[in-house]
Amino acid sequence: RKGDGPGTSVITRTKPQTKRPSLYRVLLLNDDYTPMEFVVHVLERFFSKNRDEANRIMLHVHHHGVGECGVFTYEVAETKVTQVMDFARKHQHPLQCVMEKK
Ligand code: NFA
Fold first, then answer.
1. Is the CB of 95 under 6 A from ligand 1?
2. Predicted local confidence at residue 14, as pLDDT
């Protein structure tokens, strides 16, 4: 769109807008106190993992310090982080959940 004076032209966009949303990894961080079974439960409840996959991710976090729970758009990732942090706090576990841009 050009300026507003006399002799102004207005250019409308023809190209369809197909911008894909940015994606964010949701990560769990290891700590020394949160019970393994609690982490497995979090992965089942908030990330829809089956028991085997939840165990695999939990053990990855336990051994490597950090692990991916899923990849989501910004608002969904933010909601997962809040849900996990609220649930951990409610049960008085120090489990940390964060998001990072891919
Ligand atoms: N490291 C914790 C324990 O030994 C288990 C754990 C795994 C905590 C993954 C946080 C994330 N009880």
1. yes
2. 87
